Amino acid sequence: MEWDWHFAAEIMPALLAGLVITIKITLLSFVVAVIVGLFIALAKSSTQPYINRPVTLIAEGIRRTPLLVQLYFLFYVLPDFGVVLSPFVAGVIALGIHTSTYISETFRAGIESVPAGQWEAAKACNLSQFQVWRQIILPQAIPPMIPPLGNYLISLFKETPILSVITVMDLMGMALLEANTSYRYLEPITMVAVGFLLLSLISAQLIKFVDVRLRSRVA
């Protein structure tokens, strides 16, 4: 099968529409992952067993089971219990929660990297818990987190094609639709691969730029 430029140009608008959905899912999933991941990190750092043990058990359970199984559970099993999610929402929740279990370790490592003396100094200044986190801890903990968080963002972007199994019409979903309709797989799948490669490279450079800027401000 030879490359057909006319067909490639014909399916480009559909793939671009799918790319927009892919970017939306990636960003929303990342927001979910960051919020849930921070909660998990704080809960696992708690000295109260009734808080850290259940959260640790649940997080490990999510981390040790395949994302595909979790995706099928949300989309196909939950309706049996009266909870019906759209493919988009199910995809965002599955990707976000699954990734949050890994991001939580990044948060925990970043927080623990702050010297103990900073915590003691904050207490000596009679700062509130909110002020301690906002003014002392997070400004020191966040910069080292940027590279790993950026890597998780890119990984989320590359994992979105799995959502095609629940009929999400993202970049991969649109490519498969066009391929199955025309019986031509060369152009759509190749274009998807190139699109993911280019956006991943661009994202990596942007993350590197943000990391350098933050570190220069801290320094």
From TrEMBL:
Entry keywords, A to Z: Amino-acid transport, Cell membrane, Membrane, Transmembrane, Transmembrane helix, Transport
First-listed, main subcellular location of the protein, grouped into a coarse class: membrane
Annotated ranges, domain ABC transmembrane type-1: 19-207
One of the protein's GO biological processes: amino acid transport
Subcellular location: Cell inner membrane; Cell membrane
CDD domains per record: TM_PBP2 (cd06261)
Gene Ontology MF annotations: transmembrane transporter activity
Superkingdom of source: Bacteria
InterPro entries linked: AA_ABC_transptr_permease_3TM, ArtM/GltK/GlnP/TcyL/YhdX-like, Ectoine_EhuD, MetI-like, MetI-like_sf
Membrane topology listed for this record: Multi-pass membrane protein
Gene3D superfamilies documented for this protein: MetI-like
Any Gene Ontology CC annotation: ATP-binding cassette (ABC) transporter complex
Keyword Endoplasmic reticulum: no
TM ranges: 12-43, 73-97, 189-207
Family affiliation: Belongs to the binding-protein-dependent transport system permease family. HisMQ subfamily.
Name of the protein this chain belongs to: Ectoine/hydroxyectoine ABC transporter permease subunit EhuD
Protein's organism: Pseudomonas fluorescens
Annotated gene: ehuD
